[in-house]
Structures are given as C-alpha cells and as structure tokens.
Amino acid sequence: MTDRIERTVDLKAPVSRVWKALTDHKEFGTWFRVKLDAPLAPGRVSCGHKTSPGLEHLKWEAMVQTIEPERRFSFTWHPFSAEPGTDYSEQTSNLVEFTLEAIPSGTRLRVVESGFDKLLPSSRDATFRRHDDGWSTQMQNITRHVEQQV
After folding, report:
1. DSSP-based three-state secondary structure for 38
2. Cα–Cα distance between 112 and 98 in angstroms, integer?
3. Which residue numbers delimit the Activator of Hsp90 ATPase homologue 1/2-like C-terminal domain (predicted)?
4. Interaxial angle between packed helices 25-32 and 15-23, expressed in degrees from 0 to 180 and rounded to the nearest 10
5. Domains recognised in the chain with CATH numbers
6. What is the pTM of this model?
7. Which of 12, 33, 74, 136 is close enough to 65 for a disulfide, judged by CB 3.0 to 4.6 Å?
C-alpha cells in the first residue's frame, strides 16, 4: 500500500471549462455526485449530501484549502465519511489536490489524494481500496461532464 492515490487524465476541453467544473459548486456536484449547499471558498467548509442512488442519506463535507484560478484546487476531508454515525473529529483528514495544465488537445487534470498512512490501521487498507476505485470513477465522470459540454 501507499500513502497516496494519483490519477491523471487528458481532457478535450479548455482549462477554463475544466476549472469551472472543479470549482463551481453546482458543476462539481453534478459530476462528483454530491449536492453542495453553497459556493466553494478557501478556508470554508463545504457541506452537502451524496446524490448517488442509495447514498442520498450520506453527508459530504470538506474543508476548502486552496483555489488558485485555473491552476490548483484542493480540499481536506475525512476519508471514512461514508460511514454514518462515526465521529471523525479526532481523525486526520486526507488532502485532495487537483492541478490543471494546458496541453495541445485541451487540459491535463491530475488529482492526488494523500494522507492514508495516518489513518487507523484497522480501516486503512479498505479505505485506500475504496478511494482508489472511487477516483477512477470520478475521473470518468469529469471526462464525460466537460467533454459533452465543450
């Protein structure tokens, strides 16, 4: 196992389009499958609920860390947040970073989630596997989202 998950995808969409999909709370919610209550802002908690069928009862929460226009967006979150009834206040948060790079065909998007080595050993492997699969799905979701609307 490793401390981080990395995914990179080349999108056939301009940086400005991908940036909007990442940082507009309504667009982010569409492809990420979460309904957010308010716009994203550095230093503020972003709250909402998952919208995937069967998961609508689950809360989604992240602390926005960085918004560097058309370059970098990051947030921290508790990686077990899909487990209802669990108190995460004493758990370490993982960092999720999205970076964008203009390429001739559009935009190279990279996402890195790090911090798994700080998780409780009893749930570390399962959480890593779930997030590893999840980021593969999310990269497919954002690809469909930005490329269908170019």
Report:
1. coil
2. 7
3. 12-147
4. 90
5. 4-148 (3.30.530.20)
6. 0.91
7. 74
